[in-house]
Amino acid sequence: MSEQQSSRGWILGLIIVAAIAAGAYFFLRGSPAPAPAPPPAAEPQPEPAPEVTLEPEPEPQTAAPAPAPAPEPQRPLPPLNQSDAAARADLLSLAPDGALGRWIVPDEVVRKWVAAVTAAAGGEMMAKNRPYNSPPEELIIKEAGATGMQLSEENYQRYDAPVRLFAMADTDTAIQLYRFWYPRLSQAFGELGMGDKTFQQVFLKAIDVALAAPQAEQPIQLVRPSVYYKFADPQLEKLPGVHKLMIRIGPENAARVKEKLRALKAALEAMPKQNP
What we know:
The chain is an all-alpha fold and 276 residues long. The chain has a domain at 80-269. The protein has 9 helices and 4 strands. The strands form 2 sheets. Strands 1-2 form a two-stranded antiparallel sheet. A two-stranded antiparallel ribbon has the order 3-4. Helix 3 (109-121) packs across helix 5, helix 5 (171-190) packs across helix 9 and helix 6 runs antiparallel to helix 9. It is elongated and about 65 Å long.
């Protein structure tokens, strides 16, 4: 081997040794640790928002409640002997425009109504001192039938006006007036000497009598043995006076009267018990 080749081999070996040694150094030492990252820059803190003082929201305004109406002054109850004007005015108030004026008598109003109700409770009609005026027209008779005399249906029209007014009267108002006047009604009833009953009981009895009135078969035959007409049917003629009146006013009017009487009876029975 020539000297030049030997020198080249030696140099080459030195390079290889150096490379191996350098690799071993780096291998044994390990890779250098990376430089520590700089600390993160502190983020600027936001400036606190200025405090704003809010005014409290006003509470919703509620409408002030309307003041309660002043109680009506208590109406004085007039003495029995001085009660005619007030009692009649109250009765007239049950129909518009004073339409009951022609039917209601102006004197001894409370006493006459008490007497009429008491008679009706026994099934009878008062012949005198009635608290109401009867229709002025005479009985209308039609010449027909076995007896030659029939009660004309036109006769029923004489009672249309008072029956209509009676049926139209407000039941609640009528009961309020009845309760207001009851002490005087009871006083007038006491004058009749029937201490074992109350006027309330007698009034309800009178209503029951009217409600029990039968409906007569039409047409109704009449006879006239003397001045007054009578029913030709003996069974009808034996009926109490209240039932005869309910027949004379006609079936339609009688039905309207009974309907109103049932409403009044229900309201009377629902009332607190009345003192005698």
